[in-house]
Write a structure and sequence with these properties.
0% of the residues lie in helices and 35% in strands. It has no helices and eight strands. A six-stranded antiparallel β-sheet has the order 6-7-1-4-5-8, with no helix packed on it. The protein has a two-stranded antiparallel sheet with strand order 2-3. A hairpin with a 5-residue loop joins strand 2 and strand 3. The termini are far apart.
């Protein structure tokens, strides 16, 4: 019987324009603005998702580690790190970044 020993822990460094994102935990049921409960199993149009940036490559210009970003999770590559699913995407696949204050934002807040 062969045992696999845990080797040294390696730090992940993203390359080029790649961004490593952890999906925000999904809430089961949602409520509409009118108070109607929408179950987690309800089929809706393709939904964008929010996630937290864990790492960025050296060519990424508008996103930094710790940002909360909006993206389409269906178009991304999934990787498992320490038993948790993460997504790898290009910076151009990010639709929005949530910020505390900005002069060029939408005026909408999370």
């Amino acid at each position: 019987m062969r045992t696999v020993s845990a080797g040294p822990k390696l730090e992940i460094q993203m390359l080029h324009d790649r961004v490593l994102v952890r999906l925000s935990p999904e809430e089961g049921e949602r409520r509409s603005s009118g108070g109607i409960v929408i179950p987690a199993t309800a089929q809706v149009a393709r939904r964008l998702a929010w996630g937290d940036v864990l790492g960025v490559g050296n060519s990424v210009r508008n996103v930094k580690t710790g940002d909360r970003v909006l993206f389409n999770p269906d178009d991304q590559l999934e990787v498992e790190i320490q038993g948790e699913a993460h997504l790898v995407m290009r910076e151009r696949d990010i639709h929005a970044v949530a910020m505390e204050r900005t002069e060029h934002g939408t005026g909408l807040y999370l």
